[in-house]
Design brief:
Layout lengths: L13 E5 L2 E5 L13 H7 L1 E6 L4 E6 L12 E5 L2 E8 L6 E9 L4 E6 L10 E2 L2 E7 L2 E12 L18 E11 L4 E3 L5 H7 L11 H14 L1
Antiparallel strand pairs: 1-2, 2-3, 3-4, 5-6, 6-7, 7-8, 9-11, 10-11, 11-12, 12-13
The chain binds zinc ion.
Length: 223
């Protein structure tokens, strides 16, 4: 009897489609070390599960480069042959990330585009949404909402709202990452950004991320 490969059980991960395949990475898995980083965590996070949609068969593939440390509650979006991963929960203590990584589905290589930092950019947070958009023919990633710590985090985004919960706060930040320049930008000079950054256009911090994403999508549809 031939054995059929099945990925290990997990939760708080994402599975995204690129072409005819589904790509599943990370999540909370049995035996995943609850540490910032060590060899075992890196080993467990250096594989991607691939499902061919036409056959329903899963295969596990090794990857090269360093995978993100935000292994659960991260946000993921696809542009062409690359999957982008933003932020997430590290899996120990109160450690959240605002790093952005790309994963190339042709080379299976990870690339850190923007490191985790408490100095600038989106909050270090989990539970964000992320969508890929084109503005004036250029690729952008919009990172929307999420939850993070109110202390030791990046400065609040002007115009964004933050819930009043103690320590772990929800927010309705909207950040744009411009692929061409490799930077999170803050600009209200482009119409669609102006729309997003207007306080009364934003979803409330209390809105669920799915609601945030659909609200943002509807903004794009009316531009
Ligand atoms: Zn950590």
């Amino acid at each position: 009897m031939s054995s059929i490969y099945q990925p290990v059980e997990r939760y708080h991960h994402s599975t995204v489609q690129v072409g005819d395949c589904l790509y599943m990475w990370g999540g909370v898995q049995p035996g995943l070390p609850r540490v910032h980083n060590n060899e075992k965590k890196k080993l467990m996070c250096s594989v991607v599960e691939v499902c061919h949609v036409s056959t329903g068969e899963w295969v596990q593939k090794p990857t090269t480069g360093d995978p993100p440390l935000g292994v659960s509650f991260y946000a993921a979006a696809v542009i062409r042959n690359e999957i982008f991963f933003f932020g997430g929960y590290c899996g120990h203590d109160k450690c959240y990330h605002n790093s952005l990584y790309s994963f190339n589905v042709d080379t299976f290589n990870w690339k850190e585009l923007s490191p985790t930092t408490s100095y600038c950019g989106p909050w270090m947070k989990d539970g964000s949404g992320m969508i890929a958009i084109k503005v004036n023919g250029e690729d952008y990633l919009a990172v929307i909402g999420g939850c993070g710590l109110s202390f030791n985090n990046t400065p609040p985004q002007p115009g964004a709202q933050y819930s009043q919960d103690v320590n772990y706060q929800r927010c309705n930040e909207v950040h744009m990452y411009r692929l061409k320049s490799g930077q999170f930008i803050f600009s209200n000079s482009i119409g669609v950004f102006r729309l997003l950054l207007m306080a009364d256009s934003r979803p409330t911090p209390e809105a669920k991320v799915k609601g945030l994403v659909s609200a943002i999508n509807s903004l794009y549809n009316i531009r």
